[in-house]
């Protein structure tokens, strides 16, 4: 029997919980907890991370084994007490990984994406990028280095990751007695807030005592305003991933002298020059049709995200038995679709060409599969003729890109 990846079940489970959260919130008549654009954008980023994770997770695990086999300091046996120690150690490493993620520009560039969302619900939990997963893996290496067996570490990371999913919701209010030990949705909600008194607080993932120990604990008092102090006004899939790296690079270019250049990369995000982002936005995001327009044909995006999720679920399940060509095709197809979804939210001018590129890619893939790759020009010619004969561009504009004016 081939390898089966049980991580595939995480996707349906995520959507089931999301559906339940959405239904309960509607019943409580708090519709502002969800926002269409923000949910689509959060889920898109989550899909990309889960997708790319398939390609790199094995190297993460190999790295843990490599460190454990060659450099471990202690020989820690497996026992109930050790599992207990590991859960504490994991959360302690997390605390510092997360805190440095907020205090060092280079790490913040990866972690900032998790904080873009101005809505706090389960979709915000999905907002993790591959860059963040890589940085996090670097920190987790401490655990096998100390002598925790990689098998235990990997199991613990799954438990730890699952826990933090459930702290991203407004369904549960404050539970004061629980907060003495555990991170609750209210505690983590404070971490996602941009209010002055809530800034740089509650870095713990499962336990609150690290925050209490290092004086970064803050309980929820007034209702938090979620999101960044300087919100990113874009749903562009690529821009959300890369904007802060560009900001660092721009700051680095402007800095004079070694110390200043060092600070541009490893200094505090609090000192980031706030003039930089608008300049970069002008340079890279200029082709936005109109910032106050929003897509009317929402189902088109839901269908794309639905299909991407479905493909990703099966892809995860069968990942180990697929050949490299199929893997690269699925990777490219889903990434293109996610870029497409982000572009649709912003009504980008080049969106129509992207649709064609995706169609052409699918056609070429099937030609290759049928050993007909020498006919690669045929689909291109059909597309050009179809465009000329039926003016598809205009139809696309009037059907798909229908807009409504937002407030
Ligand atoms: Zn954070
Ligand atoms: Zn969070």
Topology:
Blueprint lengths: L9 H18 L8 H36 L8 H24 L1 H11 L6 H4 L4 H11 L1 H5 L3 H16 L19 H7 L17 H5 L23 H18 L3 H9 L9 H9 L8 E3 L2 H21 L5 H23 L4 H19 L7 H14 L1 H8 L3 E3 L2
Antiparallel strand pairs: 1-2
Helix pairs in contact: 2-6, 2-14, 2-15, 3-4, 3-6, 3-8, 4-11, 11-12, 11-13, 14-15, 15-16
The protein binds zinc ion (2 copies).
Biggest sheet details? 2 strands, antiparallel
The distinct ligands, each listed once, are: zinc ion
Helix % is 55-70%
N- to C-terminal distance: 56 Å
Shape: globular
Order of adjacent strands in the largest pleated sheet: 1-2
Domain Fatty acid hydroxylase: 84-216
GO molecular function: glyceryl-ether monooxygenase activity; iron ion binding
GO biological process, one term: membrane lipid metabolic process
Membrane topology: Multi-pass membrane protein
Description:
It comes from Flavobacterium hydrocarbonoxydans. The chain crosses the membrane at residues 6-25, 51-68, 80-97, 300-319, 325-345, 374-392. It is found in: Endomembrane system. This protein has 407 residues and is an all-alpha fold. It has three domains: 6-213, no CATH class; 237-284; 293-405, no CATH class. The chain is 63% helix and 1% strand. The protein has 18 helices and two strands. The protein has helices at residues 10-27, 36-71, 80-103, 105-115, 122-125, 130-140, 142-146, 150-165, 185-191, 209-213, 237-254, 258-266, 276-284, 298-318, 324-346, 351-369, 377-390, 392-399, and strands at residues 293-295, 403-405. It has a two-stranded antiparallel ribbon with strand order 1-2. Helix 2 runs parallel beside helix 6 (130-140) and helix 3 (80-103) crosses helix 8. The longest helix is centred in the N-terminal third of the chain and has 36 residues, at 36-71. The chain is globular and about 70 Å long. The mean pLDDT is 91. Bound molecules: zinc ion (2 copies). One zinc ion binds at residues 98, 102, 111, 114-115, 191. Residues 98, 102, 111, 114-115, 191 line the site of one zinc ion.
């Amino acid at each position: 029997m081939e390898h089966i990846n049980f991580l595939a079940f995480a996707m349906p489970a995520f959507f089931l919980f999301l559906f339940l959260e959405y239904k309960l919130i509607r019943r409580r008549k708090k519709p502002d907890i969800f926002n269409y654009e923000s949910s689509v954008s959060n889920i898109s980023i989550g899909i990309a991370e889960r997708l790319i994770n398939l390609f790199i997770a094995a190297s993460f695990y190999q790295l843990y084994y490599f460190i454990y086999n060659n450099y471990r300091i202690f020989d820690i046996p497996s026992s109930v007490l050790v599992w207990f120690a590991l859960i504490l150690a994991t959360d302690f490493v997390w605390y510092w990984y997360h805190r440095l993620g907020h205090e060092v520009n280079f790490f913040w560039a990866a972690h900032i994406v998790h904080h873009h969302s101005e809505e706090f619900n389960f979709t915000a939990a999905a907002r993790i990028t591959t860059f963040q997963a890589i940085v996090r893996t670097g920190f987790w290496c401490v655990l096998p280095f100390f002598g925790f067996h990689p098998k235990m570490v990997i199991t613990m990371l799954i438990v730890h990751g699952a826990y933090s999913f459930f702290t991203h919701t407004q369904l549960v209010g404050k539970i004061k007695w629980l907060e003495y030990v555990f991170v609750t949705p209210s505690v983590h909600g404070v971490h996602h807030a941009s209010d002055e008194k809530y800034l740089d607080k509650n870095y713990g993932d499962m336990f609150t005592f690290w925050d209490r120990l290092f004086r970064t604990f803050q309980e929820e008092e007034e209702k938090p305003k979620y999101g960044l102090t300087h919100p990113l006004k874009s749903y562009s899939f690529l821009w959300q991933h890369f904007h802060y790296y560009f900001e660092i690079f721009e700051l680095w270019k402007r800095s004079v002298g070694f110390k200043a250049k060092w600070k541009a990369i490893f200094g505090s995000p609090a000192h980031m020059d706030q003039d930089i982002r608008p300049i970069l936005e002008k340079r890279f995001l200029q082709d936005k049709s109109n910032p106050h327009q929003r897509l009317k044909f929402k189902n088109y995006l839901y269908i794309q995200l639905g299909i991407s999720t479905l493909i990703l679920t099966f892809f995860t399940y069968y990942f180990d038995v697929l050949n490299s060509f199929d893997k690269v095709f699925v990777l490219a197809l889903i990434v293109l679709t996610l870029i497409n979804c982000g572009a649709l939210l912003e009504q980008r001018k080049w969106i129509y060409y992207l649709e064609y590129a995706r169609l052409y890619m699918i056609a070429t893939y099937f030609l290759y599969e049928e050993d007909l790759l020498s006919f690669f020009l045929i689909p291109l010619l059909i597309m050009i003729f179809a465009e000329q004969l039926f003016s598809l561009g205009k139809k696309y504009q009037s059907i798909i890109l229908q807009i409504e004016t937002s407030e």
